[in-house]
Design a protein that fits this description.
The chain has helices spanning 7-27, 75-88, 104-116, and strands spanning 53-57, 63-65, 94-98, 122-124. The protein has a domain at 45-124: 2-Layer Sandwich (Nucleotidyltransferase, domain 5), CATH 3.30.420.270. The protein has 3 helices and 4 strands. The radius of gyration is 24 Å and the shape is elongated. By secondary structure, the chain is an alpha/beta fold.
Length: 129
Amino acid sequence: MAEINVVPYIDVTLILLIIFMITAPIVQQAVTVDLPRTPALSNNAAATPGKPLIITVTKEGYYKTSEAPKKILSSEEIAVEIVARAELNPKQVFYIQGDKMTPYQNVMHIFVLLKANGVANVSLLTEPE
């Protein structure tokens, strides 16, 4: 009898299918991050971008900017500020510093606003240990 025994091929195929079904969700959990790039060192002052805007997130969930550090802004007011700055200068650099006791969603709110307005230069500020 000159038939091909397909049972081993089916077994191998089902095992590979199970392996791919298990590993596919793990691979899809990767996070894509557009990291800021450092400017090239140059003696030309025109090559440096404008003054960066530092957004501070307080532990109460309010926002402050480096332009007006005494003024407390709500999430709606900071959204207007970010949209205006992103439209005026698309290469504006933003730094975000958050209090360690602030909820994660308050910091992510800023990231979503910046991403929605096409801002690519965003960095987090931290204190060294």
